[in-house]
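Comment on the following before class.
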Amino acid sequence: MIIRHADDVPAEEIKWAGFSGMTARFLVTSADDNPRSALWLLEFRPGGSTDWHRHQEEHQIYLLEGEGVVVGDDKTKTAVRAGDVISTLPCENHLFMNTGTGILKMICAVPILSGKTGRQTSPCDE
């Protein structure tokens, strides 16, 4: 069993191509002898966003605070706020953006694929 406080996990600035104004706390990964699933705490500063992207891993996301938009394969911008749940499918294009004036904070559950650590995602075959 692993028990830790999120504040005890350092926030890391995400510097992936096209991502901005975003930090991640990798709360649980394979480094914790957890081989199948990771748990991330993501925080977006106002205006922060991911790039339009897709990957092999599905995500289950719960918004803890703030407001923003999520864009899926159909390119529709859907407003989201604290309390909303989002599930992205494997290889589904998506983008998240903070449109509010405060932090957009979310918990993200991510499966760990074979050979991965739970701190990154795997690109879809083009």
About this structure: The domain at 11-111 is CATH 2.60.120.10 (Jelly Rolls).
